[in-house]
Amino acid sequence: MPEAAPVINPRARYKRRFDLTLLVLAHLLLFPLWILIWTVIPLVIWLEDRRPVFYRQQRMGKDGKPFDVIKFRTMVVDAENQGPAWTTDDDPRVTRVGRILRRTALDELPEIINIWRGDMSFVGPRALDLDEHRALEGLMAGFERRLQVQPGLTGLAQIYDKNDDPYEKYRYDMEYLQKLSPYLDARLILISVWNTVIARWDHRSGKVKLENLKTDQADLSEDQGDLSESTIMDAENSHH
Asked: Percentage of the chain surpassing pLDDT 70?
C-alpha cells in the first residue's frame, strides 16, 4: 500500500523559520555560554562513571515517522533492563549528575541537533518512545493527530501537566495545535528557560502506568472543539 500523505497544518508554516532563526541568534549571542555548556556537561557525566555521555532512543516524530533522539545520559547504562521506562523522584538508576540535569532539563540540550535536522521543533508535543506512543494510540482515538507538527523540546504539556497524565497531556497537545503561533511559542520558550534557571523541571512522582489507564474513558478527541482560552491562562496562573 502507498505511504499515507503527511498531514499539513497551514498554521504551522512559520515554525521552521522560527526554529532556525532562534537557533542562529542564540548561538551567535551566547556563543561563550554554549562553549562552556558543551564542555562542562559531557565532562562531568564522563567523570562520574566513565561511561558514554550521550543516550540515543527512537521516538515517534511528525506524521508517525520515527527518528533517533539524542540526549545527555542521566541514568546508569542499561537502565531499561533494570526497571520501567519512566522514572520516579527517588529512582536509583538516575546518576547524581543526572538528577541535576533533569531538574534543569539540560539533559535535553542535545536535542537541538534534532531541531537543526528538522526532526523536532523548539515547541510542540513531546516526542514519545515508540512503544508508549503506540500504546496510547490504542487507548485514545485520534491520538496520532497530536503529531501534525514536529514534536517539541518544550510545550504546553511539558510545562503545565504536573501528574504525567497522558489524557491531560493529550488535551494540552491538541490545544497547542489549535492556538499555535510565534507569540505562543516565544512565551513557552521563555517559561521553559526560567524553569531551567530555577531548576523547576522533573518534580513528578512518575508516569501513570499504561496498564492502569481505563480504556472506557470518554474519547478526548470529541472535546477538543470545546477547549477555551482559559486553559492556558489558568495553567499559567497556577504556574506562577
From this structure: 75
2 occurs within a structural domain? no
Residue 173 domain-assigned? Answer: yes
1 is written with which cell numbers? Answer: 500500500
Side chain identity at residue 39, one-letter code: T
**What residue numbers bound the domain in which 214 lies?**
11-239
195 in any annotated domain: yes
Q: Is residue 4 part of a domain?
A: no
Model pTM above 0.90: no
Start-to-end C-alpha separation, the chain? 50
Res. 134: pLDDT tops 90: yes
- The count of domains in the chain is 1
Please report, for residues 47, 178, 189, 209, the alpha-carbon distance to residue 11 in angstroms, rounded to integers and kept in the order given. 45, 9, 19, 34
Residue 64 binned pLDDT confidence (cut-offs 50, 70, 90): very high
